[in-house]
Structures are given as C-alpha cells and as structure tokens.
C-alpha cells in the first residue's frame, strides 16, 4: 500500500525545469502601433536577462494574428524561435475574427514547422470571454465576450485544425476568471479543456481586506474556487501581479515595495518553478504609463527591474501530503509538470490542480467585478482594449505538458524516479 501511494505521488511530480515561467505580451504598443519581430525579440531577451531572476523564458500571447494583417501569423513567433522562448499561444475568441485566428495558427504551423512546434507549451482558446459575456461583465461594460457554447465550439475547431500536425498533442485550454469557472453554466468549457488558465489579482478585491499582506491568502482562495469546479483539470496561472503605481483599491496600495512583497509571497512562495506561470507584466509603461501600472520595468525596456526580483531564501517545510501537477491530458510528449508546494492538503488535490487548498476570501480579477459579494471594481480586460480586441499592452492588467521535444519525456522520467526513490526511503 505504501509503495502504491509512493508511486502515485511520484508520478504527479516532474523536475522544475519542465515548468513554464514567463510574462504576458500584448501585440501593440501603448500608442496603438503594432509590435514587430524586433520588438518581441527585445522583450524576450530582456525577460531572460532580468537582474535577480533566471528562467523567465516563456511568453503568453493573446492573438495569433500580426497586427495590421488579416491572418498573417504574429511576429512574436519568429522572435521566440530566435530567442528560444516557449509559447502559450492565444487565439482571440471574442469579436468576429476567430476564423482568421485559426487560419493564422495553421499558417504558423506550415511556415515555421518543428522550430515553432517544439516551443509551444499550450494553446489558449480565448481570454476572459465567459466573464465578459456574464451579467456582471456586461454591467461593467467589460467589452465583447462569448458564451460557453461558442467557446466549446471554438475549442473543438482548434483541435480539428491541429489534428495531424506537429501541434496535434499540444494541450488546448481556456483562460478566464475564477468567477467564470465557478459558474456551473460554464461547465462544458471545463469539460472540453486540457487545462484551465486563471487570471487572478487580489489588488482589485476592493471590498475586502486586500492589503498586500493578504495577497497570498486571497490568491490561494481564487485557486480553491477554481479547483472546486475543475474536475481534476490542471490550473495554469496565466495572469497575476501587483501594480507599482496607480490608484489605491481599498487597502490595495500600488508601490514598488508592495509589488516586491507580492512577487515574493505569491510568485516565489507559490508559483515559480512549481506551477506554469505567466506574470503580468514585463512592461506596460511603453511610452505612457497606465493607471494602474504592473510593469516589472518602467518606461525603458531594461534588464534592471523597478524592484528586487531575487526570491528570498526558502525555509524547509513538509511536503509529505501535497503535490503540484500541471500536466495536461492533451499531451503525451511533455509529461506532467509540478513540484511540492509545502502544504498538507492531500496528494490527490495537489496532483490534479497544481495547488494546495486552504480557506479564504474570494479574489477579484481585472475585468471582473466578482460575483455579488466580492464587489470588485471592474477594469478593462487584460490584453485587450474596451472594445474586446486583442493585444494591447496598456490596459491594466503566458507547462510543458507539451514541448514538442523528446527530451521532456526523459526529464520527466528522471523526476519520477528521483521522487519515487525519495518517497520509498521516507516510508
């Protein structure tokens, strides 16, 4: 019995090197002009060289389409190939351009081949569409959204588009707020996803005690809410962060000091190298500074951040009954991803969601006013402008379950063997 338990636990683990860690990247500058390959390449290079960090080598995109074109693949792709930056692809699902998004995805596969495919860790169909289509989203004028039936249809369309291609085994999922996932009317979307991308920002939870000192517990509660409805699907953190400047939201005060605290507590403490994470954001003060501003760098794109990104030393904690697991059933080439979180909540929960569970308060997200009691002030949807179009980097607020590379399989097996050995010794 002990050996069986140890084996199950070991299979839920894999080396930290397999976990995606990076930032979100919009497709436009603050002035509305479109980014080109050099722009993306400079951003990816800066992320890799950020002082005090290592391994921020993944990018989450909101659209497959290069700005100013109908369906030409976004120039972030050749930039990622040059910089060896992995990609969480995004297809913008709101509005009327989804067919063009799919066409751009197909074109990218044909144009860039295996050099592209081996960098793709997943494909997100939409971003906060369910929230924007909800009653609260409509009341908040959050922009154009889509309902669950449309998102499910779009997910199936993407699966069909990649079938038989080099991305056939890439996990396909959706990104939304915890309020969307907790709404039972959206359960069909969860059922059709390989992973659930979560956008969560305690700073915006302005009717509760949302000081940065509560950020970690509020963030954890957002995870709990999604976990309760996830049916064992892995949860990837697609957006989170704390602003360096801007307006105060109740006890949520933007500052570089508070951004550092949130980075340490949530990023270093819960996410980095444990759970697939795309932080919001490398730079959003591109020409002008938005309010609030979440950028790691200021108006100049530089490897010197606005605050210290060095993670504090980690004290040893028990990990005997909790494991993270960010593997997706949609991939057989990347293996499972995850690591221990240090929480004692049951291996089965951690293995399926990538997080421990603990009680707490509801957390708000940009673009979300919560569900009644949370009372979060609505803000524009991250990565889009108010009209619901993709890619703006100036609106406030990117796992390898699939890497396309055979090396991830051997790496995962190495992690399994190591974890199994350690657990057998423990028993």
TrEMBL record:
Compartment annotation: Cell membrane; Secreted, Cell wall
GO cellular component: cell surface; extracellular region; fungal-type cell wall; plasma membrane; side of membrane
Signal peptide: 1-18
Domain of life: Eukaryota
A Gene Ontology molecular function term of the record: glucan endo-1,3-beta-D-glucosidase activity
UniProt enzyme class: hydrolase
Pfam family, one: Glyco_hydro_17
EC number: 3.2.1.39
Keyword hit for tRNA processing: no
Protein's UniProt keywords contain Ubl conjugation: no
Ranges for region Disordered: 316-409
Primary localisation category: membrane
Biased composition (Low complexity): 316-331, 338-366, 374-408
GO terms, biological process: cell wall organization; polysaccharide catabolic process
Catalysed transformations (reactions): Hydrolysis of (1->3)-beta-D-glucosidic linkages in (1->3)-beta-D-glucans
Keywords: Carbohydrate metabolism, Cell membrane, Cell wall, Cell wall biogenesis/degradation, Glycoprotein, GPI-anchor, Hydrolase, Lipoprotein, Membrane, Polysaccharide degradation, Secreted, Signal
Family in the record: Belongs to the glycosyl hydrolase 17 family.
Protein name as catalogued: Probable glucan endo-1,3-beta-glucosidase eglC
Biological source species: Talaromyces proteolyticus
């Amino acid at each position: 019995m002990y050996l069986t338990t140890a084996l199950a636990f070991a299979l839920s683990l894999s080396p930290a090197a397999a976990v995606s860690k990076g930032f979100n990247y919009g497709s436009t500058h603050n002035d509305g002009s479109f980014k080109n390959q050099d722009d993306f390449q400079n951003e990816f290079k800066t992320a890799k060289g950020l002082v005090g960090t290592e391994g921020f080598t993944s990018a989450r995109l909101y659209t497959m389409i290069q700005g100013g074109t109908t369906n030409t693949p976004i120039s972030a792709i050749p930039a990622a190939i040059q910089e060896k930056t992995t990609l969480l692809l995004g297809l913008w699902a709101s509005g009327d351009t989804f067919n063009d998004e799919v066409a751009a995805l197909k074109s990218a596969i044909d144009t860039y081949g295996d050099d592209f495919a081996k960098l793709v860790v997943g494909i997100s169909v939409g971003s906060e569409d369910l929230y924007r289509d909800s009653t609260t989203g409509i009341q908040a004028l959050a922009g154009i959204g889509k309902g669950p039936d449309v998102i499910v249809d779009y997910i199936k369309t993407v699966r069909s588009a990649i079938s038989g291609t080099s991305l056939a085994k890439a996990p396909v999922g959706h990104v939304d707020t915890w309020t969307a996932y907790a709404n039972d009317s959206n359960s069909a979307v969860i059922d059709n996803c390989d992973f659930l991308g979560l956008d969560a920002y305690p700073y915006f939870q302005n009717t509760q005690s949302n000081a940065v000192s509560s950020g970690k517990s509020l963030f954890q509660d957002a995870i709990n809410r999604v976990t309760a409805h996830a049916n064992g699907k892995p949860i990837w953190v697609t957006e989170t962060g704390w602003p360096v400047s801007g307006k105060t939201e109740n006890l949520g005060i933007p500052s570089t000091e508070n951004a550092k605290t949130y980075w340490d507590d949530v990023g270093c403490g819960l996410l980095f190298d444990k759970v697939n994470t795309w932080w919001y954001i490398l730079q959003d003060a591109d020409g002008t500074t938005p309010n609030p501003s979440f950028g790691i760098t200021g108006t100049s794109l530089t490897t010197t951040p606005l605050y210290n990104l060095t993670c504090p030393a980690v004290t040893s904690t028990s990990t005997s009954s909790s494991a993270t697991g960010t593997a997706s059933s949609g991939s057989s080439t990347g293996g499972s991803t995850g690591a221990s979180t240090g929480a004692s909540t049951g291996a089965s929960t951690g293995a399926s969601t990538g997080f421990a569970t603990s009680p707490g308060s509801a957390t708000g997200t940009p673009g979300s006013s919560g569900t009644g009691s949370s009372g979060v002030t609505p803000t524009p949807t991250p990565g889009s402008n108010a009209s619901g179009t993709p890619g703006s980097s100036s609106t406030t607020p990117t796992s390898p379950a699939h890497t396309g590379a055979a090396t991830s399989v051997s790496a995962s097996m190495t992690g399994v063997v190591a974890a199994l050995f350690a657990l057998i010794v423990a028993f």
